[in-house]
Sequence to fold (114 residues):
Amino acid sequence: MSHTNSVSDILIASGVEESVWTGTSLINALNGRSEQRGWRTPDRVANPIGYLRHLLQDLDPAATAKMIYRPSRAQTAAKETQKAQAALDRLRSPEHRANVAKGVALLRAALQSK
Fold:
């Protein structure tokens, strides 16, 4: 039996539905479960088919891929860029500049009174 047939057999036996799961969503789900457990992927897997069977044994086959969505690195970076831009916009706002000016004035007054 080829590895491809073995993988197919394991996926069928675990209840993974091809109408619900994509390859990417399945990998994300398996990686997510491993992260939740604090596991890390071994450097070398002596029995890849057995390792896949082990990873799939407690995966909820009824869960949809959308429920286990993990954003891509590009999506995460874009979201972080938007947050940073919003923070910069707040720093550049007239209200923030006025508060800074008030603070500087208070500091100067305090230093001059000494």
